[in-house]
Amino acid sequence: MSTLLTWFRLFLLALVTLSPVVAQAADDASAQSQDAPVKVNAAVELPKMQKVLDKIKQQVSGETNDSKLSALNDMALELSSDADTLTQGITPQRAQLVAQLAVLGPPPKPQSGVKETSEVTSKRRNLENQKGKIDDQITQAESIKSSAINLSAQIVNLRRDALKTQLALNAGSLLGPHFWSPLFTPQSDDNQKVRDFCDELAQTAAMSWEPGWRLGTVLWIVLSVLVATLGRRYLEQFLAWVGINHLPEGRLRRSFLAAATALTSLLAIVLAFNFLNLAFTRHDNVMDDVRDFADKLVNLSILCGLIAGLGRAFLSTRRPSWRLPNISNEVALALKPFPPLTAVLVFVFQTIEILNSSANTSVSTTVFANGLTALLIGATALSISLRTNRVRRKIILSGAQPEAKSTLVGLIQMAITLVGVAIMITLLIGYITLARFLSYELIWIGIVFGSFYILSQLVSDACETFFSTNTSTGKSIQRSLNIDERHLAQVSTLLGAIGKTVLVLAAAMAALNGTFGSGTPIELVQKAIEFWGGKGLESLNIVPAHVLNALLSLVVGIYVLRSVKRWLEHDFLPKTTMDVGMRVSLITLFSNLGYVVVFLLALSIMGLQWNKLAWIVSALSVGIGFGLQEIVKNFISGLILLTERPVKVGDLVSISGIEGDIRRINVRATEIQLGDKSTVIVPNSQLISQNVRNATMGNAQGVATITLTFPLDIDPEKVRELLLDVYNENERILETPEPSVSFKDLTSAGIVLAVTGNVASPRQVSGAKSDLLFDILTRLRKEGVVLSTPQTMIVEQRNGNLVVKEPEGPATEG
User: Fold this and answer.
1) Which residues of 528-565 are buried (b: 16+ CB within 10 A; e: fewer)?
2) Domains along the sequence of the chain with CATH
3) Is residue 104 a contact partner of residue 9, using CB atoms and an 8 Å limit?
4) What three-state secondary structure class fits 757?
5) Residue 114 buriedness (CB in 10 A; 0-12 / 13-18 / 19+)
6) Is the pLDDT of residue 323 over 70?
7) pTM for the whole thing?
């Protein structure tokens, strides 16, 4: 019986595998009914597909061009389709082998006592081997298909992320049909991806509404609404009460209330979104992509809270007395809708971008969302400028006087207008990425500038108030430390400057490190630490972005340097006991060194490596050898003058027959002002290498000495008393040391007397001697005392004889 069964199986197998007619008929019937794919050689095609997949991965890893990434994405999708076709092509072969194995049946069990021939066993083994190979090929094809699909999704993400940085990418004009195509002819994949992600969001909401979770969800939602409404209002009222009742009246109270307004809005919005996040994502079964989507929305709420809070603080329409900038009520009321409108626009379109990223939609959909975002933000910017101008024009036409607009406010308004126009132009010519960048950069710079303005005002007012002797805190500090009021003013000015410097550096780092989503505060701090730690100097990597950052840093550094220089010159140093010359020397030295540091920092940000600057040093050496040595010598001499201070600004010096006051010590030369107000430029090296007379060094006094010659018949004591009286009565002559009269000489012309007195400064000698001579000659004439006639002989020839004559008249020597 078993032998008959075995032969029957072999007969059926022969019918299936060996009959050409039956096989051809079956293939024709299958092709007509099911359109089965043509049989392919998977063993040859699969290695080719794997090589193509590896090649695409290799090209994607180093590619940034959008058009090439798009071509690679098409290749990945085509490879996925080919892998699917290959799978469909070898699946019938597997089905055929399964049918053949079913005909042969399973191998007989040893205990059954049934034996099959070796031909059947060998045939079953071959069929099983072929089926295993085909299974491996199907698995490999499915793996290639899955890898190609994942690679396509990664390429789309790369293209979407590149849209934020590739500013020169032209994606089509705003007026073209290609831009609006996702709205009218959306891709089916995008619709399905968005529906799938929305289904995940719906499932998350459903999980939060399950029994046992429903009460907590309601409580978190209610708490979120209460914090966003009543919580913000009562917190703002509490902080206002604190400022009004516990802070002294003045600028500090106003800046504190403005900061409190911004802070309450920020806290209310951020807490509300955190509570909503907890309401819907606290379940353990929430998917990771949904949880990541919610976390990004919470982070986005921080930026939107800053926009709304800073807008309320700057405009302060409900309490105009709290308003920090000089804005009229009409302008503030006209601009009131724009901060919340901007916050809503940013939140909505950033949410759309996050949704596109989470759902992995196509690049065209992302471009459409970016363009719509830039369009609305640019229109909002232009509307702000137009409405402001319209309101000011109405104020002028009504006969009222508008508020005095500062240059900074005018520059800000001009920048907003120009950026709005630039956004519209770039949208029209097709640069959607650039328009999006300008839109978010405008908002980000506004946030940074607004935060810096309010915080700097708060820091400055706090330092000035807490250390003022007019407040209780300042009086308490003065009594505790027993210090002078002048020292408290110095501490206040110094702390305020330090605070503003920290804020300027923080604002510069925030502005340089990009817009939304490009850096958290912790990342900004880490970048600052890495920069100041010197990691930016490790390699020479000059790229356009680094050059732009270097230029911005150079501008910011020069602005900070000049601000600190003005602060030292007008605020801090005048409150010290330093003399004017010392102050000017310190300011000049600080300015020279500061410019060098700022320039070196700009080079470091640009990526210039100091150990690669040997060629610069060599060029400088050659330049010094051919003529720069004088410049370098004068520069070094200027540093010596500023540090050793043999002469300083304000000194009266004499050098090479030139006498005048030093007005300025520059890097290369020193300016000396003469008595006629003209200026002589003297190289610094001459002040170091030549003999210089410094008449005012060491608080030197001036000496007014007048030498007079009297006849031999005068009363010396009477003349002496007369001269001393004149000197003592002059207000410029110092009492210590006392004036003195000395007997200089006794000549044939008469008695030579010298009267000497000291004045406070060498600059007073000339004026004092003039006044003294007038007084002396008047007193001598009044007392009847004449000066000696000079012994001058005039030889004349009369009638052949020489006659000697002595001219008459008084003589003085001074």
Assistant:
1) beebeeeebbeeeeeeeebeebbeebbebbeebbeebe
2) 2-162 (no CATH), 180-466 (no CATH), 613-700 (2.30.30.60), 702-798 (3.30.70.100)
3) yes
4) strand
5) middle
6) yes
7) 0.56
